[in-house]
Amino acid sequence: MGEFVRETLNGELVLSENDEGQRIAQRFSNAHAHLRTAAVTGTNGKTTTTSMIDSIVAASGEPSARLTTIGGWVGGEAVSGENRTLQFLAVVERAVALGVRTLSLEMTSKALSTGLASRWPPTVAVFTNLTRDHLDMHGTPESYLASKAQLFMALRPGGCAVLNADDPCTHLIREVIPKGVSVRGFSLRPDSRATLVAESLSCSARGIVIKLVSSPLADALGGQLDLSIVGGVHAQNVLAAVLAADALGYKAETILEGLKRFECAPGRFQVVGREPLVAVDYAHTPDGLNGTLRTARELVDSAGRGRVFCLFGCGGERDRGKRPQMGAVADSLADVVVLTTDNPRREDPAAIASDVLSGAPTPRASWHSEPDRAKAIEWAIRHAATEDVVIIAGKGHEEVQEIQDARIPFSDAEASRAALRARLRKPST
Fold first, then answer.
1. Which domain range does residue 29 map to?
2. What is the pTM of this model?
């Protein structure tokens, strides 16, 4: 199998130019002809938005298919492959065989930098946001944005671009959208002139309520979205998914049912405990951590009591510049910060921690350092009161810790559940 795919420096797999590679390319082309694609890119919210679109498709009664960084599913069943290229092919060919009409696809900057958008042009392309990430790979923010822009350049006449009107990079994305493509925007600013606008957003431990500014689509949706997913961080994802599904022709009642069924994507503000509320989140960028901790702050404030615990670390052998930024974010929004490891790889965890701490030279929050991630999670949950919110940030759905050259099995969700069980056996001190 490895003879007809090759791995680029950024870890994405692309087709070779030999005969077998050409046959694989033809199979991709054949599958593409039978599917329309809602593709989602951006820094934060890609997996959740993609999964929301998939839930709406499933609510229509059609078989659905989605492919994200977490995995691939067709008709609700997981589909795998021995590498990313072959998993993609397995998903789309299975989708065609089952009569799927709409593929929900997460597009990373890695995949886009290999030219995937030109090989698999989308019908609808969604831009969630752009913040600092992957500079170790792309070099500059401009190069990072350029990789994202390729998705929108690949849209064909009759397609639709769904853009975050609140993100300053959106006007740059607009400049590369081809003629004949419709553009729709979403916004959390009530005074925005975007297509779908939130008038207000309220959050609690029971879910979120998004009241919509009146428009034909907002009115068809009943004027508000009352959802069981926890965290205002999901609000923009919801609006993006609504616009994408509407652009694909799904009815308002189907969109509402799909969102009602949706719980959360694994590791995306995934609630694993209630007293205290413990959420595992993939936030691994300054902006991602900011959004997640603001959501935690809102939950505490809406309850009128409690503290925010933030547990996180920064990856080794990756963008060092974001480390102090994340330290500053955590210190400004959390009451208790637990600094630990997050895939240190071959870097010294103490050096990584020092970079993080430089962002909070005169700490406002109470800081606790524990390099062992399992022990750090146990400490945070043991010291939290029932009314507190504990955010386990950085790794989300990942199931390994990369330490030196080893990939050690580790799940934040499982470690949190184990700590919660231990807490029940031994009261907080």
1. 2-261
2. 0.80
